[in-house]
Amino acid sequence: MGRKTALASLAAMLLSVGCALSAPKYKALIIDGRNNHAWQRTSPHMKRLLEETGLFSVDMATTAPLGQPLDGFKPDFSKYDVLVCNYAELKWKPGSQIGQWPEETKTAFEKFVEKGGGLVVVHAADNAFPDWKAYNEMIAVGGWGCRNEKDGPMIRWRDGKMVLNHQPGSGGTHGPQAPFQVVNRDTKHPITKGLPETWMHAKDELYAKLRGPAKNVTVLSTAFSKKTGEHEPALMVIDYGKGRVFHTILGHDVDPMMQCAGFICTFQRGTEWAASGAVTQPIPTDFPSADQPSVRN
Ligand code: ZN
Fold first, then answer.
1. For a disulfide at 212, which of 68, 125, 141, 190, Cβ 3.0-4.6 Å?
2. Residues with CB under 5 A from ligand 1 (ion)
3. Strand (E) or helix (H) holding 202
Protein backbone atom coordinates (compact mmCIF):
# COMPACT_ATOMS: atom_id res chain seq x y z
CA MET A 1 0.00 0.00 0.00
CA GLY A 2 1.46 3.38 -1.01
CA ARG A 3 1.81 6.11 1.55
CA LYS A 4 -0.95 8.19 -0.02
CA THR A 5 -3.33 5.21 -0.15
CA ALA A 6 -2.56 4.38 3.48
CA LEU A 7 -3.24 7.95 4.51
CA ALA A 8 -6.45 8.01 2.50
CA SER A 9 -7.71 4.80 4.10
CA LEU A 10 -6.72 6.06 7.55
CA ALA A 11 -8.65 9.28 6.87
CA ALA A 12 -11.66 7.28 5.67
CA MET A 13 -11.50 5.12 8.80
CA LEU A 14 -11.29 8.14 11.10
CA LEU A 15 -14.17 9.73 9.23
CA SER A 16 -16.36 6.67 9.70
CA VAL A 17 -15.42 6.44 13.40
CA GLY A 18 -16.18 10.15 13.71
CA CYS A 19 -19.56 9.67 12.10
CA ALA A 20 -20.35 6.74 14.37
CA LEU A 21 -19.36 8.77 17.42
CA SER A 22 -21.41 11.77 16.39
CA ALA A 23 -24.59 9.85 15.55
CA PRO A 24 -27.42 11.38 17.59
CA LYS A 25 -28.04 9.59 20.87
CA TYR A 26 -31.76 10.16 21.10
CA LYS A 27 -34.75 9.90 18.81
CA ALA A 28 -37.36 12.62 19.17
CA LEU A 29 -40.82 12.87 17.63
CA ILE A 30 -42.55 16.24 17.26
CA ILE A 31 -46.34 15.93 17.24
CA ASP A 32 -48.36 18.61 15.45
CA GLY A 33 -51.07 19.15 12.84
CA ARG A 34 -53.61 21.14 14.84
CA ASN A 35 -52.85 24.21 16.92
CA ASN A 36 -54.24 27.73 17.02
CA HIS A 37 -50.60 28.75 16.71
CA ALA A 38 -48.27 28.61 13.70
CA TRP A 39 -47.17 24.99 14.11
CA GLN A 40 -46.13 24.95 10.45
CA ARG A 41 -43.43 27.43 11.47
CA THR A 42 -42.64 26.44 15.05
CA SER A 43 -42.26 22.68 14.49
CA PRO A 44 -39.48 22.92 11.86
CA HIS A 45 -37.80 25.54 14.07
CA MET A 46 -37.89 23.19 17.09
CA LYS A 47 -36.60 20.34 14.89
CA ARG A 48 -33.59 22.49 13.95
CA LEU A 49 -33.00 23.49 17.58
CA LEU A 50 -32.91 19.86 18.67
CA GLU A 51 -30.76 18.73 15.75
CA GLU A 52 -28.18 21.47 16.27
CA THR A 53 -27.34 19.99 19.69
CA GLY A 54 -26.09 16.87 17.88
CA LEU A 55 -28.01 14.81 20.45
CA PHE A 56 -31.25 14.22 18.59
CA SER A 57 -32.57 12.87 15.35
CA VAL A 58 -36.06 14.25 14.89
CA ASP A 59 -39.13 12.94 13.08
CA MET A 60 -42.50 14.62 12.71
CA ALA A 61 -45.95 13.12 13.31
CA THR A 62 -48.59 15.39 11.80
CA THR A 63 -52.29 14.69 12.26
CA ALA A 64 -54.98 15.22 9.66
CA PRO A 65 -56.10 18.87 9.55
CA LEU A 66 -59.13 20.23 11.41
CA GLY A 67 -62.41 18.85 10.17
CA GLN A 68 -60.91 15.57 8.98
CA PRO A 69 -60.99 12.29 10.90
CA LEU A 70 -58.03 11.42 13.11
CA ASP A 71 -58.52 7.64 12.75
CA GLY A 72 -55.27 7.24 10.85
CA PHE A 73 -53.09 8.96 13.46
CA LYS A 74 -51.11 6.02 14.81
CA PRO A 75 -47.42 6.92 15.21
CA ASP A 76 -45.17 4.23 16.68
CA PHE A 77 -44.16 6.11 19.84
CA SER A 78 -42.06 3.16 21.01
CA LYS A 79 -39.37 4.00 18.44
CA TYR A 80 -38.58 7.24 20.31
CA ASP A 81 -36.90 8.45 23.48
CA VAL A 82 -38.87 11.67 23.72
CA LEU A 83 -42.07 13.13 22.28
CA VAL A 84 -42.43 16.88 21.79
CA CYS A 85 -46.05 17.98 21.82
CA ASN A 86 -46.79 21.00 19.64
CA TYR A 87 -50.42 20.01 19.21
CA ALA A 88 -53.55 21.72 20.47
CA GLU A 89 -57.07 21.59 19.15
CA LEU A 90 -59.00 24.12 21.16
CA LYS A 91 -62.34 23.39 22.76
CA TRP A 92 -64.03 26.80 22.75
CA LYS A 93 -67.40 26.01 24.32
CA PRO A 94 -68.53 23.52 26.97
CA GLY A 95 -69.98 20.45 25.31
CA SER A 96 -68.42 21.14 21.92
CA GLN A 97 -66.63 18.22 20.35
CA ILE A 98 -62.97 18.29 19.45
CA GLY A 99 -61.08 15.71 17.45
CA GLN A 100 -59.82 12.80 19.51
CA TRP A 101 -56.85 10.64 18.71
CA PRO A 102 -57.82 6.98 18.29
CA GLU A 103 -58.11 5.16 21.63
CA GLU A 104 -55.16 2.92 20.78
CA THR A 105 -52.99 5.99 20.10
CA LYS A 106 -53.97 7.58 23.42
CA THR A 107 -53.23 4.31 25.23
CA ALA A 108 -49.87 3.97 23.46
CA PHE A 109 -49.01 7.59 24.37
CA GLU A 110 -49.89 6.96 28.04
CA LYS A 111 -47.91 3.71 28.15
CA PHE A 112 -44.93 5.37 26.47
CA VAL A 113 -44.59 8.00 29.20
CA GLU A 114 -45.65 5.71 32.05
CA LYS A 115 -42.92 3.21 31.17
CA GLY A 116 -40.18 5.82 31.24
CA GLY A 117 -40.44 7.80 28.00
CA GLY A 118 -39.90 11.55 27.83
CA LEU A 119 -42.49 14.17 26.95
CA VAL A 120 -42.00 17.88 26.25
CA VAL A 121 -45.06 20.15 26.31
CA VAL A 122 -44.60 23.48 24.54
CA HIS A 123 -46.82 26.55 25.08
CA ALA A 124 -50.29 25.89 23.58
CA ALA A 125 -49.88 22.12 23.87
CA ASP A 126 -51.12 22.70 27.42
CA ASN A 127 -54.41 23.87 25.90
CA ALA A 128 -55.01 20.46 24.34
CA PHE A 129 -57.24 17.61 25.51
CA PRO A 130 -59.10 19.18 28.46
CA ASP A 131 -61.05 15.92 28.91
CA TRP A 132 -58.16 13.43 28.69
CA LYS A 133 -57.33 12.63 32.32
CA ALA A 134 -53.88 11.10 31.78
CA TYR A 135 -52.76 13.95 29.50
CA ASN A 136 -53.73 16.50 32.14
CA GLU A 137 -51.78 14.55 34.75
CA MET A 138 -48.76 14.65 32.44
CA ILE A 139 -48.91 18.43 31.88
CA ALA A 140 -49.88 19.15 35.55
CA VAL A 141 -51.73 22.34 34.61
CA GLY A 142 -53.28 23.62 31.40
CA GLY A 143 -55.32 26.52 30.09
CA TRP A 144 -58.42 27.31 28.05
CA GLY A 145 -60.52 24.44 26.67
CA CYS A 146 -63.23 25.40 29.19
CA ARG A 147 -60.91 24.51 32.06
CA ASN A 148 -61.97 25.80 35.46
CA GLU A 149 -62.01 24.68 39.10
CA LYS A 150 -63.48 21.30 38.07
CA ASP A 151 -60.13 20.54 36.41
CA GLY A 152 -58.02 21.30 39.46
CA PRO A 153 -56.20 24.07 41.29
CA MET A 154 -53.85 26.81 40.12
CA ILE A 155 -50.20 26.64 41.14
CA ARG A 156 -49.19 29.61 43.23
CA TRP A 157 -45.79 30.65 44.59
CA ARG A 158 -45.76 31.64 48.27
CA ASP A 159 -42.78 32.15 50.59
CA GLY A 160 -40.38 30.28 48.35
CA LYS A 161 -42.59 27.32 47.66
CA MET A 162 -45.42 26.07 45.53
CA VAL A 163 -48.95 26.05 46.94
CA LEU A 164 -52.23 25.04 45.31
CA ASN A 165 -55.14 27.46 45.01
CA HIS A 166 -58.57 25.89 44.50
CA GLN A 167 -60.45 29.19 44.20
CA PRO A 168 -63.14 28.94 41.46
CA GLY A 169 -62.51 30.55 38.10
CA SER A 170 -61.59 29.86 34.53
CA GLY A 171 -58.18 28.43 33.70
CA GLY A 172 -55.86 30.16 31.27
CA THR A 173 -55.27 33.80 30.42
CA HIS A 174 -52.44 36.05 29.31
CA GLY A 175 -51.72 39.74 29.03
CA PRO A 176 -50.29 41.51 25.98
CA GLN A 177 -47.09 40.08 24.55
CA ALA A 178 -44.04 41.60 26.20
CA PRO A 179 -40.56 40.65 27.36
CA PHE A 180 -40.62 39.30 30.92
CA GLN A 181 -38.22 38.05 33.54
CA VAL A 182 -38.04 34.35 34.30
CA VAL A 183 -36.85 33.43 37.79
CA ASN A 184 -35.39 29.98 38.33
CA ARG A 185 -36.78 28.67 41.63
CA ASP A 186 -35.11 25.26 41.48
CA THR A 187 -31.45 25.79 40.70
CA LYS A 188 -30.39 22.20 41.43
CA HIS A 189 -32.45 20.47 38.76
CA PRO A 190 -30.35 19.30 35.76
CA ILE A 191 -32.31 21.61 33.42
CA THR A 192 -31.73 24.83 35.39
CA LYS A 193 -28.46 23.98 37.18
CA GLY A 194 -25.81 26.60 36.42
CA LEU A 195 -28.18 29.01 34.65
CA PRO A 196 -28.41 32.61 35.83
CA GLU A 197 -31.16 32.67 38.45
CA THR A 198 -33.03 35.52 36.76
CA TRP A 199 -33.17 36.05 32.99
CA MET A 200 -35.07 38.25 30.59
CA HIS A 201 -37.16 36.32 28.09
CA ALA A 202 -37.87 37.91 24.71
CA LYS A 203 -41.39 39.17 23.98
CA ASP A 204 -43.89 36.35 24.55
CA GLU A 205 -47.27 35.50 26.03
CA LEU A 206 -47.10 34.86 29.75
CA TYR A 207 -49.64 32.15 30.43
CA ALA A 208 -51.42 32.65 33.73
CA LYS A 209 -54.05 30.95 35.89
CA LEU A 210 -53.38 27.53 34.41
CA ARG A 211 -55.32 24.79 36.20
CA GLY A 212 -55.06 21.05 36.45
CA PRO A 213 -54.35 18.07 38.70
CA ALA A 214 -50.93 19.62 39.59
CA LYS A 215 -49.69 16.27 40.91
CA ASN A 216 -46.03 15.19 41.02
CA VAL A 217 -44.99 18.56 39.63
CA THR A 218 -41.89 20.61 40.43
CA VAL A 219 -41.86 24.27 39.46
CA LEU A 220 -38.42 25.05 38.04
CA SER A 221 -39.11 28.68 37.12
CA THR A 222 -41.77 31.33 37.54
CA ALA A 223 -42.55 34.62 35.79
CA PHE A 224 -44.44 37.51 37.34
CA SER A 225 -47.71 38.27 35.55
CA LYS A 226 -48.91 41.87 35.72
CA LYS A 227 -52.34 40.52 34.77
CA THR A 228 -52.74 38.29 37.83
CA GLY A 229 -50.14 39.80 40.17
CA GLU A 230 -48.78 36.28 40.67
CA HIS A 231 -45.52 34.47 40.02
CA GLU A 232 -46.91 32.08 37.41
CA PRO A 233 -45.22 28.74 36.76
CA ALA A 234 -43.18 29.06 33.56
CA LEU A 235 -41.04 25.92 33.47
CA MET A 236 -42.15 22.72 35.19
CA VAL A 237 -41.16 19.09 35.38
CA ILE A 238 -43.63 16.33 36.13
CA ASP A 239 -43.14 12.68 37.07
CA TYR A 240 -45.66 10.47 35.32
CA GLY A 241 -45.08 6.81 36.18
CA LYS A 242 -41.45 6.22 35.30
CA GLY A 243 -41.59 8.97 32.65
CA ARG A 244 -40.29 12.51 32.72
CA VAL A 245 -42.28 15.50 31.44
CA PHE A 246 -40.82 18.95 30.77
CA HIS A 247 -43.51 21.65 30.40
CA THR A 248 -42.59 25.11 29.13
CA ILE A 249 -45.27 27.78 28.83
CA LEU A 250 -42.89 29.79 26.62
CA GLY A 251 -42.87 29.80 22.81
CA HIS A 252 -45.94 31.46 21.27
CA ASP A 253 -44.17 31.77 17.90
CA VAL A 254 -40.70 31.63 16.36
CA ASP A 255 -39.94 35.37 16.15
CA PRO A 256 -38.79 36.39 18.69
CA MET A 257 -40.06 33.97 21.38
CA MET A 258 -38.38 30.80 20.16
CA GLN A 259 -35.30 32.69 19.01
CA CYS A 260 -34.64 33.78 22.59
CA ALA A 261 -31.41 32.15 23.76
CA GLY A 262 -33.17 31.42 27.07
CA PHE A 263 -36.04 29.59 25.35
CA ILE A 264 -33.59 27.70 23.14
CA CYS A 265 -31.32 26.66 26.01
CA THR A 266 -34.13 25.55 28.32
CA PHE A 267 -35.95 23.75 25.48
CA GLN A 268 -32.80 21.90 24.40
CA ARG A 269 -31.84 21.01 27.97
CA GLY A 270 -35.42 20.15 28.92
CA THR A 271 -35.74 17.79 25.96
CA GLU A 272 -32.45 16.07 26.79
CA TRP A 273 -33.58 15.67 30.40
CA ALA A 274 -36.97 14.30 29.32
CA ALA A 275 -35.21 11.82 27.03
CA SER A 276 -32.58 10.65 29.50
CA GLY A 277 -32.91 12.12 32.99
CA ALA A 278 -29.64 14.01 32.59
CA VAL A 279 -28.33 17.14 30.88
CA THR A 280 -24.91 17.26 29.22
CA GLN A 281 -25.23 20.53 27.27
CA PRO A 282 -23.15 23.54 28.26
CA ILE A 283 -24.81 26.86 28.97
CA PRO A 284 -24.50 29.15 25.93
CA THR A 285 -22.47 32.36 26.27
CA ASP A 286 -25.39 34.40 24.90
CA PHE A 287 -27.81 33.28 27.65
CA PRO A 288 -29.90 36.35 28.58
CA SER A 289 -28.98 38.52 31.53
CA ALA A 290 -31.50 39.65 34.14
CA ASP A 291 -32.38 42.82 32.23
CA GLN A 292 -31.62 42.20 28.59
CA PRO A 293 -33.26 39.70 26.21
CA SER A 294 -30.88 37.80 23.94
CA VAL A 295 -32.36 36.87 20.58
CA ARG A 296 -30.65 34.75 17.90
CA ASN A 297 -31.73 35.93 14.47
ZN1 ZN B 1 -49.78 31.71 22.31
1. 141
2. 205, 252
3. strand 198-204
